[in-house]
Amino acid sequence: MARTKRRHRFWANVVITRLTDDHGNTTAYAKVTRDLTERRTLDEELKKSEERFRLLIDGVSDYAIYMLDPKAA
Fold it and tell me: pLDDT by residue (tens digit) across 8-67?
């Protein structure tokens, strides 16, 4: 979790790279932060959907479930 300047929390991927001169001495650090909030939200929604589907399938004992593809004709 990272924080914005206004202290809001968000999911992030942070990469920090050490920058050196020709002699290998550290001169600075570069940081790249990627906001992963939307991706994390979509992943959670997918997990919930998959869990509901799994529970539906696991609950089937006396009948069958058919999955039809409306695009296949």
Answer: 788 899 999 999 999 999 999 999 999 999 999 999 999 999 999 899 888 888 877 777
N- to C-terminal Cα distance for the chain? 47
pTM above 0.90, yes or no: no
> How far, in Å, CA of 41 to CA of 35, rounded?
12
Rounded-to-integer distance, Cα 61 and Cα 15, Å? 50
What is d(CA 2, CA 34) in angstroms, rounded to the nearest whole number?
A: 10
Q: Which helix (H) or strand (E) holds 20?
A: strand 12-20
**What Å distances lie between residue 51 and 45, 56, 65, CA to CA?**
10, 9, 17
Q: What letter would DSSP give residue 72?
A: -
